[in-house]
Every structure is written in C-alpha cells, then in structure tokens.
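Case study 2.
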Amino acid sequence: MSRAYVIGVTGGIGSGKSTVCDVFARRHGIAVIDADQVAREVVLPGSDGLAAIVRTFGTEVLDGEGRLDRARLRAIVFADPAKRGALEAITHPAIRQRMREHVEAVTSPYCLLGIPLLAEGGKNPLIDRVLVVDCPEALQLARVKARDNLTDAEVTAIMATQASREARLRIADDVILNDGDPAALAGRVDDLHAMYLSLAAAHPR
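Prediction:
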C-alpha cells in the first residue's frame, strides 16, 4: 500500500510539539497524526483494544460508563513492569496499525506523525525523517508548570522519565528551536516545508 512521506515529530514535555504541528497544518495544509490521540482511539468502548485490556486487568479499569479509566489503569501498571509489559503488548501493535491506516489515508504531500517518546521507543518503521522540537529545559519547566498547574518537583520528575535533551537531539534529522519567537518559528517551518516537499516528491508512493 502506498503512503505519504512521514516526518516523525518529537520533543520533551513542554517543548511545543503541538504548536509546531499546528503551524505546519495552518500555514501549509499538512496532515498531522497525533500518537496520543491514536492511543485513545484504540481503547474506545467497543474496540478490540479495550476488550483485551478488560480481559487482562478486569472490569475495575472501567469507569461507570464503560470507558477506560486511564488513571486507574496507570496506577495498576505504574509500579509493576510485568503488568506494564502486558498493557504494552495489547496497545502498541494496535497503535502502530492505526497509525499506518491514518498515514495511508493522507492526501497532503507529506504528513507529520507526533510521537512524544520517539527517542525512548526506538526506530519506528513508518517514519522517514525525524524532526525534534527543542527548547531550553528552564522554558520546558516554566511552560508545563503554567499549563498543568504543577510544582517544580513534579515537572522535574516527569522530565526525568523522558530521554534527555541531548538524546533527543542525537536522533534528529532536523531541529526546530521553539523558544517563544512566533516569527522565527514560522520562518523555520516554511524552510522545512520547502525541503520536505522536495523529499516527498522523491519518495515513491
């Protein structure tokens, strides 16, 4: 099955991945596929994914309306690597398959595939090129504190579970510095868009 050229977009929490993807979509009409949204799709009520989770973890992971209680499931698997592995064995293949379906439906010359933990998860066969959204760690901290009403310690703990800034930059083919200058961000997106159009044109579909 033919598919569009795929740019994997990643970055640490608070780096502004969604902001960058929105600029590509708004300025250039580029399709954006969000891995977090796909992860929610594959466990919707009635899905095979949710049925498998209930078979494995019991009905206690459902809320009163039969939807996945993500907080309860997270509490169950958080401190137990075996249970976390069992959950990933259910969800990861379903997420990969749904992502592939979304990519195959793309009509723009290329698409963005937003994956927050790309550096942590290893090579993704769907991705042709990696774009890292980067910003200073102090700015990450400030953004997440303001957005999620968390303390310094809580944000630092989340950042500690993710790949380091250096590790993300090592996997980058391209980098966007998202330090709060909208004009500079738009200009960088425009430059990358022109390059991605050329790469997509040379990519067999």
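The CA atoms of residues 136 and 179 lie 7 Å apart.
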